[in-house]
Amino acid sequence: MEGGSELLKKGFAALQKHVNKRKATLQDRLKKEERINDDDSTWLDGPANLIDEERTLELLDSASDYEQGLSCLNNVLQAAVNHMKEFAAGVTSSVSALKAPSTKRKKEKTRPITEFKNQAPISTGTAAWATV
Questions:
Q1: Is the full-model pTM beyond 0.85?
Q2: Which end of the chain is more exposed for a tag (fewer CB within 10 A), N or C?
Q3: Range of the domain at 88
Q4: Is 53 domain-assigned?
Q5: Residues 6+ apart with CB under 8 A from 23
Q6: Is residue 113 part of a domain?
Q7: What region does 97 belong to: left with phi over 0, alpha with psi -120 to 50, or beta?
């Protein structure tokens, strides 16, 4: 069934367009060796990683019969099919894909000065300089 495959390709194109802006912004920051927060990193490795959708399209395109190809997919690839179908049907928003990359930086953990008040002073010793 060629229509099913075309529907998934349409959904994949919509999904790809949906995540590209945020993904490109984060990848540019990484190229500049800027830090990104854990949520953004997790998003890049998870929802922004469309490898399951790409693999599903390849498997279904190479299958002799679309319906038989669908029945052979594992749960992860079935979820990818459903995801692409949703975007083909007109899903246009996703909180995880639309979220702007965070510009917050984690603060370095420093100890407040008050923690040092009760500590003994550091002795550097006295050194006598002799001239010969």
A1: no
A2: C
A3: 2-97
A4: yes
A5: 44, 48
A6: no
A7: alpha
